[in-house]
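Sharing a chain and its predicted structure for anyone who wants a worked example. Both blocks are below, sequence first, tokens second.
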Amino acid sequence: MNILLVLIPVTLLVVVTGVVLFFWAVNHQQFDDLDSPAVLPLLEDPAPDATPLQTAAPLPDGGAAVADPDQG
């Protein structure tokens, strides 16, 4: 019976934490667009703002390659 004195406050803490995190996610627009992210991998030409980050690969001589060929 003494375990109830521990479990009830712990359960209330978990519930309150979940509610706070849910409202934080709603206030930070985490649930605004649920359909577009699921469709993006299926598109052939990604939108300009959805392009993956380009990373520079190291060159054999120790220098760094240019990430964007248009920038020279």
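Comments welcome. DSSP finds two helices and no strands in the chain.
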